[in-house]
Amino acid sequence: MDSQQRPMILGKIPKLPGKWAFIIIPFILSCLMSGIISMINLLRTVGWNDDFVELWLHNWMLSWMFAFPIVLLLLPVVRRLTALFVDMKGPPSA
């Protein structure tokens, strides 16, 4: 066993290497955005009822199924558009 252990997420599950950030960031972002937007739209159209959570989860998963690949496809375009407005050479500010 090498002297430097990989950081763990939970228990013995290791964190992914940094090279996976390009897929994990859009994965999480598309999850959150599709969940929030589908909830807002569902609340506006049907309101709160006894089946809301079940209906929302169904709609959210359907939305996420489309949102994740769309985010992956559009991310390079968004980066280029961002570079038109932002000096990407400077250090990032906190």
List the helices and strands and how they pair.
Elements: E1 8-10, E2 13-14, H1 21-46, H2 52-85
Antiparallel strand pairs: 1-2
Entry summary:
64% of the residues lie in helices and 5% in strands. A two-stranded antiparallel ribbon has the order 1-2.
List its salient traits.
94 residues; two-stranded antiparallel ribbon; flat
Structure overview:
With 94 residues, the protein is mainly α. The chain is built from 2 helices and 2 strands. It has helices spanning 21-46, 52-85, and strands at 8-10, 13-14. A two-stranded antiparallel ribbon has the order 1-2. Strand 1 (8-10) and strand 2 (13-14) form a beta hairpin. Helix 1 packs across helix 2. The radius of gyration is 19 Å and the shape is flat. The model has no long low-confidence stretch (mean pLDDT 91).
Query: What form results from the Cα inertia axes?
Result: flat
The proportion of residues forming helix, as a percent range, comes to 55-70%
Spatial strand arrangement across the major sheet: 1-2
Q: How many distinct beta strands?
A: 2
Mean pLDDT: 91
Q: How much of the sequence is in beta strands?
A: 5-15%
Return Rg in Å.
19 Å
Oligomer type: single chain
User: What low-confidence regions span 5 or more consecutive residues with pLDDT below 50?
Assistant: none
Give the N-terminus to C-terminus distance in angstroms.
Answer: 38 Å
Q: How many helices in DSSP terms? A: 2
SSE run = EEHH
The major sheet is characterized as:
2 strands, antiparallel
Question: From the helix content, strand content and strand pairing, which structural class follows?
Answer: mainly alpha
